[in-house]
Amino acid sequence: GGIIEIVGLNALLATKIMMALGVMLAGVSMYFLAKEFWGESGGILSALFYMYAPYHALDIYVRGDVAEFWAVAFIPLVFLGLWKIYKEQQWRYVVLASIAFSLVVVSHNLTAMMISPFLFLAVLFLALKSKNKTTAVYIGVAFIIGILLSAFYWLPAVLEMANTNVSSLING
Q1: Per-residue pLDDT tens over the stretch 42-70
Q2: What is the Cα–Cα distance from 116 to 84, expressed in whole angstroms?
Q3: What gap in Å lies between CA 62 and CA 56, rounded to an integer?
Q4: How many Cα atoms are found within 13 Å in the side-chain-facing hemisphere of 7?
Q5: DSSP per residue over 85-144, as a string?
């Protein structure tokens, strides 16, 4: 949003553009993921359902949680990258999965924590299902690179947790 404002638009318009781009990215990323399983019409239908999910409206209009709906827009790209690694064993999909996962982490760390168990299960499932050891390595590398790419964000938070009063927030 700040980049849009630097270009010369006011803060309100920059916020609206940023929110619209996030919702459109969610639809596009879901389209590409769903298209892999159900074809073009299934991709379009899935993208529409994903874009018009009530949770997006809640994030935008009620909670104003811009970071979360941007993270939700990147989630399908993570799973698309993993699936394409499994199907095609190409490094470009390792890059896609890695960058998408790191963007989820950097956008909204709680969303990343919530999807990580499912992502780990998907990684494990695809790696075990694959008869090719190279595929398993690619999938594992994608997950690890995604964690490492976002380490600049989560590592200081973990290391400095002792210097904060987090326990009072948890224990009330």
Answers
A1: 999 999 999 999 988 888 888 888 889 89
A2: 19
A3: 10
A4: 8
A5: HHHH--HHHHHHHHHHHHHHHHH-HHHHHHHHHHHHHHHHHHHHH-S-HHHHHHHHHHHH
Radius of gyration of the chain (CA): 18
pLDDT in tens, 86-127: 999 899 999 999 999 999 999 998 899 999 899 889 888 888
Q: Are 60 and 19 in contact (CB under 8 A)?
A: yes
Cα–Cα distance for residue pair 126/71, rounded to 1 Å:
23
Amino acid at 79: F
The pTM of the whole model exceeds 0.85: yes
Distance CA 30, CA 6 (A): 30
